[in-house]
Every structure is written in C-alpha cells, then in structure tokens.
Amino acid sequence: MLRVGLTGGIGCGKSRVAGLFASLGAPVLDADTLNRELQTPGHDLYAAIVDRFGPGILDARGHLDRGALRSRIFADPAERQALEALVHPAVEAAIEQRLAALPETTPYAVIVVPLLFEAGWEARFDHVVVVHCEPGEQIARVTQRDGRSSAEVEAILEVQMNPDERRRRGDSEILNTEQTSDAELANQVAERDTALRELATTIRSRVENRPPNS
Is 15 annotated as a binding-site member? Predict the structure, then answer.
C-alpha cells in the first residue's frame, strides 16, 4: 500500500481535495483530526501536554484551550518545539495504527499533514501531493472562514514553509486557485488517483515477482 502525503499551506483547500480522494474510494487519514482526538481528556497526549504546559492552558471544562496554547507556542519557538516533541510521535503512532487496520489490498492511503515538510515527515511517504494556491488567496479564505484578522493569518504563514519551496519538494501538485473550477479540481484529483493506483499496481507486481532472498 502506497502512503501518500497530502499537504499545503493554510487555506489552500486540503480538506476539499482529501474529500475528493475519499469519494474515489481512497482511505483518508487527517493528522489534525487525530491530533485533536488525542488532545481530549483521557488520552496520554492530553495528559502529557497538561503536564508540560500547566493547567493554565485548560478551559473551565478541563479541555485544552487551543487559543491559549496557540498563543504560548507562537510567542516562543522553544515552546512550539516542546509541543511538537509531544504531538508528533503520538500522531504518528495513531496513523500507523489506522494504516495497519486497512485491508492489504488497499492500493494507497492518503494522509493529510498540513506541516508535512516542516515536521520533516517526507521520508515517511512514498508520494507527496501538494495543494497550492497563492498567499493572497490563503489570507482571504482563512479570514472569511475562521474570522481571523489578516495579521493573524500572515503570522501563521510566516511559520509555514514558503509555497515555492513546498511545491519544489512535493512529488505532484494540485492547483486550487480562485480560477480553478469545481470540475477542474475534481479532474485533477481523478488524474492523480489513476496515477497512484497505477503506481501501486506496478510496485506490488515488482514485490510479488521479486526472487526469494533478493
């Protein structure tokens, strides 16, 4: 089974593209969704974060106050690194567990990782698809979607990889600009799905036909 990483900057439309892959029958795992799940009370990651950052990051219900935690890590790179040191191994273990439960005949699975390159995770994937749009479009989409200010979104973009560098490091690209119609986006995903299924078949055939002890 091919492991396909799906990444892109904030507001580029990763969730929309992931949904199109899912509609074509590809299993989709979302690192952010798993992260949120693991950060709820009762999970080891939740306990580790509270132990490291203290009860000041909890809301009145005892859940993580994501706004408070976000303020901490954006204000201090060392704090961000400390959080990542807790989160990344936990999320990676959860992804591995979910992948292991998929049928062996699955051609490929898509794992959505927003900060894939920033986290140094590219070696964990057989193929990385980058969803791209222009920075101005990212700011406009996120301010409208999340109600954040332009300054807040720009601060997030500052800690994310340069879009051109992300595109250079990816194996393939899906454009999701303002000029991209719904049909064009679906066609791009369908073409990538076909290519990934063909690649999975080729690799599986090579493995099955490999001489013993080679």
Answer: yes
The pLDDT tens digits of the residues spanning 135-173 come to 899 999 999 998 889 998 888 888 889 999 999 999 999
Domain edges within the chain: 1-27+108-214, 37-101
State yes or no: 120 annotated in a binding site: no
Cα–Cα separations (whole angstroms), residue 109 to 17, 164, 179 = 14, 25, 28
Closest CA to 142 of 16, 8, 12: 12
Task: Note the pLDDT tens digit of each residue in 69-108.
Answer: 988 888 888 999 999 999 999 999 999 999 999 999 999 9
> Does 133 appear as a known binding residue?
no
- At the top level of CATH, the class of 1-27+108-214 is alpha beta
